[in-house]
């Protein structure tokens, strides 16, 4: 309580010292803003749900998306969501191994921070884990077939 009273007194004394000594700063000039995008062009084609592609008069392709803050636009070459997701899943698959342990599967993934290990029952596998397990079985079957020949 004492600290609050002291802070209040100091603040009021500083405010009293500053009053009348300096003129207020001139109002800042408003900065010119880029023209806001209000709508997606009428001839834009919807490539994915919520994403539109449009080619301008100069031949440059743009991707549009309606957001809660308005319409967002960026060059079409900078975004390929599906390909990025597929690359990420393939990277996880390539560095993850799966080994059957009875009715469970033990997964081991190499990460920059060391090996990550987890165990999941065969009936409770996620979609990614099932893909890893299927790929692992496919690879082991192919290697066994090659060894026999």
Description:
There is one protein chain. The protein is built from three helices and seven strands. It is an alpha+beta fold and 149 residues long. Among the domains are: 35 residues; 66 residues, no CATH class. It has a four-stranded antiparallel beta sheet with strand order 1-2-3-4, with no helix packed on it. Strands 5-6-7 form a three-stranded antiparallel beta sheet. Strand 1 and strand 2 form a beta hairpin. The radius of gyration is 30 Å and the shape is flat. The chain starts with a helix and ends with a helix. The mean pLDDT is 79.
Helix content: 25-40%
The chain-level mean pLDDT equals: 79
The neighbouring-strand order within the major sheet is 1-2-3-4
Strand content: 25-35%
Helix/strand/pairing class, anyone? alpha+beta
- Backbone CA Rg: 30 Å
Please describe the biggest sheet, giving its number of strands, its sense, and whether it closes into a barrel.
4 strands, antiparallel
* Low-pLDDT segments, ≥5 res: none
- The end-to-end distance, rounded to whole angstroms, is 87 Å
Q: What is the number of beta strands? A: 7
Q: Helix-strand pattern, N to C?
A: HEEEEHEEEH
The number of helical runs is 3
**What is the global morphology?**
flat
């Amino acid at each position: 309580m004492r600290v609050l009273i002291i802070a209040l007194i100091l603040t009021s004394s500083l405010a009293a010292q500053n009053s009348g000594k300096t003129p207020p700063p001139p109002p800042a000039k408003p900065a010119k803003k880029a023209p806001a995008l209000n709508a997606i062009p009428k001839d834009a084609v919807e490539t994915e749900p919520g994403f539109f592609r449009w080619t301008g008069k100069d031949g440059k392709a743009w991707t549009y998306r309606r957001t809660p803050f308005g319409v967002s636009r960026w060059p079409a070459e900078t975004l390929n969501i599906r390909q990025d997701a597929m690359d990420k899943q393939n990277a996880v698959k390539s560095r993850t191994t799966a080994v059957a342990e009875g009715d469970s599967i033990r997964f081991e993934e190499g990460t920059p921070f060391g090996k990550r290990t987890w165990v999941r029952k065969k009936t409770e596998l996620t979609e990614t884990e099932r893909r890893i397990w299927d790929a692992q079985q496919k690879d082991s079957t192919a290697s066994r077939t090659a060894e026999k020949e």
